[in-house]
Amino acid sequence: MGKVVRVVLGTLLAALLVVAAAQPVLANDEKQMGGGKAQKSLYDRLGGKPAITAVVAEFVGNVGADNRINKFFAKTDLANLQVQLVNQICEASGGPCKYTGGSMKEVHKDMGISGADFGALVEDLVKALDKFKVPEKEKNELLGILGPMKSDIVTK
């Protein structure tokens, strides 16, 4: 597998955590009314791009230090991974960024990811969200669609 493919696969593996979580929220987020006022987007409630960038940096560090799963990222360009994850989370949560990566199913098909690997990645994201004291509501929105994504990612 070439270096570019590994970078893309590593980027998308990590990104899976957030993209799916925000998609169902986005469809209703702007339409929901709370106390007569439109509810802010998840992107805004998370603190925008600066906050997303900080959480992603922490998350990537967590994954890199996690011996359970860091093998999937051994040849990944971590700076590029962070940029891709920020864009993916930003877009998925209603922000102005654009993610241009492939589908979770396609990019993970030959990686041999197990349920335990997937769970470890989720734990690393939760650890980063907790460090930055992301409120439960927003954290749950981000993590909410990980269940359905699991079937696209776990192949082992």
Word description of this protein:
The structure is a single chain. The protein is an all-alpha fold. It has eight helices and two strands. Helix content is 66%, strand content 3%. Helix 1 (3-29) runs parallel beside helix 4. A two-stranded antiparallel sheet has the order 1-2. It has a single domain (3-153), classed as Globins (Globin-like). The longest helix is centred in the first third of the chain and has 27 residues, at 3-29.
Produce the secondary structure layout.
Elements: H1 3-29, E1 33-34, E2 37-38, H2 42-46, H3 48-65, H4 78-92, H5 104-108, H6 115-131, H7 136-143, H8 146-153
Antiparallel strand pairs: 1-2
Helix pairs in contact: 1-4, 1-7, 1-8, 3-4, 3-6
What distinguishing features does this structure have?
mainly alpha; Globin-like; disordered N terminus; two-stranded antiparallel sheet; 66% helix; 156 residues
